[in-house]
Specification:
Elements lengths: L8 E8 L6 E8 L6 E10 L3 H4 L3 E4 L3 E6 L8 E4 L8 E3 L8 E3 L6 E6 L2 H13 L15 H9 L1
Parallel strand pairs: 3-6
Antiparallel strand pairs: 1-2, 3-5, 4-9, 5-8, 7-9
GO molecular function, one term: 5S rRNA binding
Protein name: 50S ribosomal protein L25
GO cellular component, one term: cytosolic large ribosomal subunit
Length: 155
């Protein structure tokens, strides 16, 4: 401000020039220590899921959570521990609750899940192909086809 006063605020919106990416405009939201605010806070996962070690893939359904709380109590990011997730299991928002803030999503909202990998499915299909017999290894069969008999006689 021109008077040199400082205010506690958070960045609400920012606009960039489409070509030069220079900042064109910024909006700030003034916060007060005794008044709760609602913000979207990023989620950081911790650990390696058991299902990922077994060949699964960790898929993120949410990257940020909308939470409400006092500005001093809100974390910079929310840590979600995924080490116990097996293939097919999901991590819900109820697993990252805290007394410092209230999550604004329904309790059945999924943060991330371990899904089966397409590579595993392809590997299983390749194993089935090994049981099949190659075309040149197929034993000859007898035939009643007249044309086949005639071709054999011409030689």
């Amino acid at each position: 401000m021109k008077s040199g006063e400082s205010y506690a605020a958070i960045l609400q919106d920012i606009q960039f020039h489409p070509v030069t990416d220079a900042i064109m405009h910024m909006d700030f939201y003034q916060i007060f220590d005794d008044k709760p605010i609602t913000m979207e806070i990023p989620i950081h996962t911790e650990g390696v899921a058991r299902g990922v070690k077994n060949g699964g893939v960790l898929r993120y359904n949410l990257r940020r959570l909308k939470v409400r709380g006092l500005p001093g109590d809100l974390p910079d990011y929310i840590i979600a521990n995924v080490t116990k997730l097996k293939i097919g299991q999901k991590l819900y928002v109820t697993a990252v609750t805290s007394d410092d803030y209230k999550i604004q999503h329904p309790d059945n909202t999924v943060i991330c899940q371990v899904r089966t990998s397409r590579n595993i499915v392809e590997d299983l299909e390749d194993d089935e192909d090994e049981d099949e017999v190659a075309a040149d290894e197929v034993p000859a069969t007898e035939t009643d086809d007249v044309a086949a008999v005639k071709e054999g006689e011409d030689n």
